[in-house]
């Protein structure tokens, strides 16, 4: 089995690199979400319009959901080289928590979008 050692080391290095890339993309998504959300808030403030709270939540929440997807991908990748059941259990628990966070975040975003659509429909009817 000595011949497989270099292959295992290469796989481990590749998995760590891929996991790092996925985690970096996740952090980048949070940063982009923050920047775009701040742009929306500042534009609204400059125009002296109402504060677009729902739009801000939808925008930032979408970026957070994407970031969680990348984090979950990194967790899955890291399970391929997990050396023990304890480490695998920890990664599994983290993955479950992130999956639940993502699920409930998406549910909340769906409700916010539905609420925003209802408000737009109501204002369109009021203008008639």
UniProtKB/TrEMBL annotation:
- Keyword set, alphabetical order: Membrane, Transmembrane, Transmembrane helix
* Highest taxon of the lineage: Bacteria
Q: Which InterPro entries match?
A: DUF1622
Residue stretches spanning the membrane = 14-42, 63-81, 87-105
Name recorded for this polypeptide: Sll0939 protein
